[in-house]
Design brief:
Blueprint: E1 3-8, E2 12-19, E3 39-46, E4 55-66, E5 75-85, E6 89-96, E7 101-109, E8 113-122, E9 133-140, H1 162-178
Antiparallel strand pairs: 1-2, 2-3, 3-4, 4-5, 5-6, 6-7, 7-8, 8-9
Length: about 180
Amino acid sequence: MNFGMILFGNNFDFGLSVRNLLSMEPINNETENNDRARYMLIHGSYLGGNSESSIGIIPSFVIRKMGIITHNSLFQVDLNVKLIYKNNIWTGFSYRTHEKAMSAMIGFNTGRIFLGWSYDIGTSELGAYHNGSHNIAIGLKIGRKRTSQIRNQTPLYLNIDSEWRKIKFLNNRLHKSTI
């Protein structure tokens, strides 16, 4: 059983989740089996930029902590930054503290499809035993486009392109004409 909650606005999100709530907490890191362990995730991101610019920047973080109450050395922070041009093309960089891994990413979005690629390389002593890893992410939006949304952005649409400016301009014109 998992539990999570998220607080979000048009330009940010902050979330907390606890995974494997019914599992035992690890007492130490010297486990011989692959039992599920209780752990906590905290994440946040901010959409920097505005509707006047075609470039957006999204700094974000993820914190992972194995065990909630007991002391455990498995504590990891991911620091990320992503640059997006007109909601279509993006690139980014990530650093993971516990594994001392760095990642470079690139991808593109359309109205219905997301495609991304990243390359991770470890800089810790384990890095000498591998040549990194390639990761591919594919997303597909299924269904009709909704006319109303809870927030003005989604992972496929971040309000930083010319289409959003046109909608904002049109809404301002309509609001002035009704006064």
